Amino acid sequence: MMLSVELTMYPFNGDYIPPIKAFIEKVNTIDNLEVKTFPTATIIMGEYDHVMDSLKVLFKWSYETQGKAVFVAKFLPNTEVLS
Q1: Who has the most CB within 10 Å: 8, 45, 61, 70?
Q2: Distance CA 22, CA 4 (A)
Q3: Residue from 8, 26, 6 nearest 74 by CA
Q4: pTM for the full model?
């Protein structure tokens, strides 16, 4: 099953742009994900288990390297890539 996740990051940091950019760069290093970045959110698409496993790794990495942040996500199963 395919999964699309719309993800927005809100760092607990006055200088919020660097942690957001670092997170997006990290997302783009993971194979077998399609990533679309927009001004207000990033959409991650791929096989359900791979996306969910990737999010687990990404959130942990973010908290360990970028500090605290709130992530807001919308999950849409059975969705292919955006055109």
Answers
A1: 45
A2: 21
A3: 6
A4: 0.88
